[in-house]
Known about the structure:
Layout: E1 6-10, H1 17-26, E2 30-34, H2 37-40, E3 45-48, H3 54-63, H4 67-75, E4 80-83, H5 85-88, E5 93-94, E6 100-101, E7 108-112, E8 119-124, E9 126-127, E10 141-146, E11 148-152, E12 157-162, E13 166-173, E14 176-179, H6 187-202
Parallel strand pairs: 1-2, 1-3, 3-4, 4-14, 5-7
Antiparallel strand pairs: 5-6, 7-11, 8-10, 9-12, 12-13, 13-14
Amino acid sequence: xxPRRTIGIVDYGVGNHASVWRGLHALGYRCRVSAxxxxxxETDLLMLPGVGAFSxxxxxxxxxxxxxxxxxxxxxxxxxxxxxxxxxxxxxxxxEHGFTAGLGLIPGQVVPLQSARWHIGWNSIEVxxxxxxxxxxxxxxxxxxxxxxxxxxxxxxxxVARLDRPLPVGVRRGNLVGLQFxxxxxxxxxxxxxxxxVEGLCG
Length: 203
C-alpha cells in the first residue's frame, strides 16, 4: 500500500491555498498550510502556489524569511512543486513590471506572452521527454490563467502548450517541478498528473 504523504503548502500570503488544499485532500493527501519552516520540514513534499504579481510574491517570501529556506531545501533534495506563479518564482528572475530576482532554482527567466495578452482557459499539453510523471498526461487538457511565461532552459522543459508557438508549461530539475497550469482545477486529468508528480518525486 502506498504510504499516505503529507504535503506542505507554503503559505506566504499570495497563494490560492484553498483550491490547492482541496485538490490534494481529494487525492487522499494530508496537508499542512504554513509559513513555519519547522512545520514545513516535517512534510514529504513542498507545494508552492501563487497568484498575482511576481514582485509582490517575492517580496512576501522575503518578508516571511522563506527564500533561504526554500533554496536550502532544494539543495537538500526536498521535493518542491511550484504551481502557476509558484512555478515562475523558481526562475532566476522575472521581467514583469521591471526585473525582479527569483528563487533561482531552475535556470530561466519569466517574460510576457508575445502572441496574446492573456492565456486563460483550457489547452492541451505536449510532453517532450520520457518522464514517468508526465508521459501519461501527453495530450491532456489543463486549465491555464497567466500572462507571463517561464522560459526555462530547454534541458529542463518537460511539456509545452501551443498558442502561436510552443510555450514551456512544465519544467523539472531533479527534485523540483513547476507547472504553469492549475492541475487542482483541471478535473480528472489534472488530479492524475498531480498524483503522478507527488508520487514520482516522493517515491
